[in-house]
Amino acid sequence: MLIRVRFSKIGLLKFIGHLDVMRYFQKVLSRSGLPIKYTQGFHPHQIMSFASPLGVGLTSDGEYMDFELEEDRSEEEINTALQNSLTDGFLISKVTILNPRILNVKKVSAMALVDSADYFIYQKPGTMVSEKEKNMFEEAVSKLLALPELVITKKTKTNEKELDIKPYIYDTAFSFAEFLDNRVLDATYKDALH
Predict the structure, then answer these.
(1) SS3 for the chain, per residue?
(2) 169-192 burial string, b = 16+ CB within 10 Å, else e?
(3) What would the pLDDT profile of 37-66 be if each residue is shown by its tens digit?
């Protein structure tokens, strides 16, 4: 039985790296009492994967993790077992049972489904920026986005290549209200952003 979980990582947990999040959820799954499926072989480990690594210092309302169970359970039962095993800063917002055999579809990983992300960058409380500096920043970003292309050098393990990132920027906003205007976010996550 394949399970997909959407979770939030908020508050001080933004300082925990992706590998630590993976280890944390291995422990959560063990503590949950759910019949987790393990790989076969000399060093069995839980069958689980994450959609994409979240950088250190970032919070998120939409992280995804897949894992497998040996036995069938209801979404409510899985959600309750996971919620009871979590610490503050992590919140399960949705549990979905995926069964490719019943749906007659190819098994698709969570990583393959992620196609975009929202980034909200805010000024640290207590720091002062004049209205003039704020306007200058907004004008500079607007000029940058008005360019016909934004070419960066993308480095991989084996080579470097130039990539135009302009088609991948869908929207920009310069205030919290404007940022939230067209987005549906979990209330707990919205509160954590303030």
Answers:
(1) CEEEEEEEECHHHHHCCHHHHHHHHHHHHHHHCCCECECCCCCCCECEEECCCCCCCCCEEEEEEEEEECCCCCHHHHHHHHHCCCCCCEEEEEEEEECHHHHCCCCCCHHHHCCCCCCCCCCCCCCCCCHHHHHHHHHHHHHHHHCCCCEEEEECCCCEEEEECHHHCCCCCCCHHHHHHCCCCCHHHHHHHC
(2) eeeeeeeeeebeeeeebbeebeeb
(3) 999 989 999 989 888 888 888 888 888 999
Rounded Cα gap, residues 135 and 142, in angstroms: 10
Length of the chain, in residues: 194
Tell me the torsion sign for CA atoms 97, 29, 188, 173: negative
Banded pLDDT at 107 (limits 50, 70, 90) = low
Q: Are the CB atoms for 68 and 2 separated by under 8 Å?
A: yes
Global pTM reads 0.67
CA distance 47 to 34: 13
